[in-house]
Prior knowledge:
With about 230 residues, the protein is of the alpha/beta class. The protein has helices spanning about 5-15, 30-35, 35-50, 70, 80-85, 100-110, 115-120, 145-165, 180-190, 205-210, 215-225; strands spanning about 25-30, 55-60, 120-125, 130-135, 135-140, 170-175, 200.
Amino acid sequence: xxxxxxxxxxxxxxxxxxxxxxxxxxxxxxxxxxxxxxxxxxxxxxxxxxxxxxxxxxxxxxxxxxxxxxxxxxxxxxxxxxxxxxxxxxxxxxxxxxxxxxxxxxxxxxxxxxxxxxxxxxxxxxxxxxxxxxxxxxxxxxxxxxxxxxxxxxxxxxxxxxxxxxxxxxxxxxxxxxxxxxxxxxxxxxxxxxxxxxxxxxxxxxxxxxxxxxxxxxxxxxxxxxxx
Length: 228
């Protein structure tokens, strides 16, 4: 029996681990190992929206934040929107993530979560949260923040992207969030020939933080790109 899209994503997440090298002062957080409820809510989410064999378009983020997928296991989804939009309550955590606000405002205008997730799959080339030590505290980090970090995680990222693609994703074009992210995905693409064409969209966090007055323009841009 062929596995549904949901079953394949759940299996990918269940087997997700990074045991490669990291520079000093960087750590990888695996939410599935740290909180059993993350595995539960992630499974509920994918069973609700991905229990089919649809071919989907692929949106590529950077890597999960500690307050979004780093808690819920669902990209760009904090616990607030997981409950209020997706109807899945998480008891062990309560998070608000800036990027999640934009993404779910855009999803609503796309036609709602069912319509959006029927067409679109979101994940990251490095699908686990990365943190770095700064002044004694651990803060969010991006896989491209440090040259040594990128070199350490590059092969793992290519392997992860290939596994995502094998779920039945449309590789004729990929939607990459963030211009700097796109520069690095382009490098991976030149090496591994993953996608025919890259469409770059501004990152939700950037829009929320710096372009909130023009938010509707960016929502329109996303929907126009994704629905064409």
